[in-house]
Specification:
CATH architecture: 3-Layer(aba) Sandwich
Largest sheet: 7 strands, mixed
CATH class: Alpha Beta
CATH topology: Rossmann fold
Helix content: 40-55%
Radius of gyration: 17 Å
Order of helices and strands: HHHEHEHEEHEHHHEE
Shape: globular
Strand order of the largest sheet: 3-2-1-4-5-7-6
CATH superfamily: Vaccinia Virus protein VP39
Number of strands: 7
Number of helices: 9
Length: 239
């Protein structure tokens, strides 16, 4: 895979994820106590309702979501990400699980998706949109490559609204997660970055408004695990 450069902001984020790619899957499951698998399962169950033949996975990382979808669907999946090392980890898993004929990974930024308009039946992203250097541009690109009547599914961390849950969540995200993630991965800054981006992300109705600004209709949100994560769904209407 040829090394690519993007915007200065994206390159910095890509380099950070490169540095933790070797421990990324383990830490995802360990730090979420395995709940992240159930969240992805929820996304897949919603996506399968429309039986897409071709799916784009944006910010695919190590291709966890793409691989999980391939176990539940016969669709073709293209995954894009800015991190070369994350994609290499994903490619290893795809090869080991003999999924190369179903999943293709490409190094690319969400803000400049290297595919034609109206190409995909569905687009999805799990815990990646908060890393877009320009959120609306990335969503506009996802809208562009979707076919008319195509659907978008976005899984992202959110901020719980219940006081007790929010207090526990904030303590865990501010103190436990950065320490554990930093010790295991060797990159403390990467796991301080996570709570910063979650706190800064415009979740809930604010994110639905940005989806609508990008052209999506029938936008809905599904709160998961007391609001720790949210699944957002929208549609590209036929003109």
């Amino acid at each position: 895979m040829t090394k690519k450069t993007f915007s200065p902001q994206s390159d910095k984020v890509g380099q950070m994820f490169d540095s933790i790619s070797h421990k990324y899957d383990f830490l995802n499951h360990f730090l979420s106590m395995g709940i992240d698998k159930a969240w992805r399962k929820k996304l897949i169950s919603e996506l399968k309702k429309h039986n897409p033949a071709k799916v784009l996975d944006v910010a695919t990382g190590t291709a966890d979501l793409a691989i999980q979808l391939s176990r539940n669907s016969d669709c073709i999946i293209h995954g894009i990400d800015i991190s070369e090392m994350m994609l290499e980890e994903g490619q290893k898993k795809i090869t080991q699980q003999k999924l190369k004929n179903r999943i293709q990974l490409i190094q690319a930024a969400a803000e400049k998706i290297p595919f034609d308009a109206n190409e995909y039946d569905a687009a999805m992203a799990a815990f990646g949109v908060r890393n877009f250097y320009h959120l609306l541009t990335g969503l506009l690109e996802m809208h562009r490559v979707l076919k008319p009547d195509g659907w978008i599914y976005i899984l992202e961390f959110s901020k719980p609204k219940t006081f007790a849950v929010r207090q526990i969540y904030q303590f865990y995200f501010r103190f436990i997660l950065p320490l554990a993630g930093g010790l295991i991965s060797g990159n403390f800054e990467a796991y301080r970055y996570l709570p910063r981006t979650v706190n800064a992300f415009p979740d809930g109705q604010n994110f639905l408004k940005i989806m609508q600004d990008a052209g999506f209709t029938q936008t809905t949100e599904h709160s998961l695990s007391f609001g720790i994560a949210t699944l957002y769904i929208g549609k590209k209407e036929a003109v």
